Hints:
Layout: H1 2-22, E1 27-31, H2 42-51, E2 56-59, H3 62-65, H4 70-83, E3 86-93, H5 108-122, E4 126-130, H6 143-156, H7 158-164, E5 167-171, H8 179-189, E6 194-199, H9 210-217, E7 221-226, E8 228-233, E9 238-243, H10 252-262, E10 267-270, E11 278-280, H11 296-308, H12 321-343
Parallel strand pairs: 1-2, 1-10, 2-3, 3-4, 4-5, 5-6, 6-7, 7-10
Antiparallel strand pairs: 8-9, 9-11
Helix pairs in contact: 2-4, 6-8, 8-9, 9-10
Amino acid sequence: MRRRTFCAAAAAGVGQIRAMQTKVPLRIGIDLFSLRNQDWTPFEHLDYCARQKVQVVHFSEIRFLGGLEEAHLKKVREHADRLGIQIEVGMRSVCPTSSAFDPNQGTAEEQLARMLNAARILGSPIVRAFLGHGGDRRGKLSIDEHIENAVKVLRASRSRILASGLKIAIENHAGDMQAREVKTLIEEAGTGIVGSCLDSGNPLWAIEDPHLTLETLAPYVLTSHLRDSAVWRTAEGSAVQWVRLGEGNVGIDGYLSRFAELCPGKTVSLEVIITGPVVQRFMEPGFWQAYRKTPAWEFARFLTLAEKGKPRQAPVPAASKQETAAREREDLEASLRWLREWRNS
């Protein structure tokens, strides 16, 4: 009897070990753009994220930091250290010809220099930045020309970046670039100073399968933004809606498994943004002027996802700023729960 009991206990112990071994190792963070309407100080942001038990807080824009004064940044760093949180920092466009670039803040090189200094003070291993948005594909300059101009900025800043010991993590942002274009930018600027901030939601705005984006950019990933999406066919082409984790139809669970395999140890920061449908009018001939270099086989992968989707209703607008802020927290916390349940399943 005692032997059977021991064996049963041992078997149960082995089962527990095996269950633990099936857990997907993920370093979880929060991108503060998920909480963009909270009107919190950086210290309040850090306290909230500590309560969510994440390892990383991604200050993706300067406004979340509350300023770049050295004394202030040191206090933010000290607060994060007390909470056991790693900080990552970000800025906006580093492409001077993008409509997303703000020349009032100085040249791209000057803005980059300020952020490298802030990252050093805060202990961030990277500075996240981006080129622009989908509108840059349809302006006077081609996306290739914008990429070339961003590369010039990064090359001009090479010695400063190397001296800092940090890297610039370029995000595939708001439909600005497809994966092979981000890859070109990174390689032309130099992998010694530039890598990828891999976003899982933005590829769909650029008619790209996010799994293809992951496969292409995995060797360059320094950090990431994670959100789920729903995509479906429309008469004009397709529609994309960003949703809570687990509510989309792009196979986010398979995406995460592959990310853990290809990018071990890299942070998965939730950037939860809930949107109404965004339509890609690829049935209209003029649409393709911005995507003349997209291979048919790549578009076919995106189309396969869209064909499997079903139309979604747009979310009901919030009635007040307070409700908007409350919804942000609810959406983020629900997505965190889903991620942890999936990881431990």
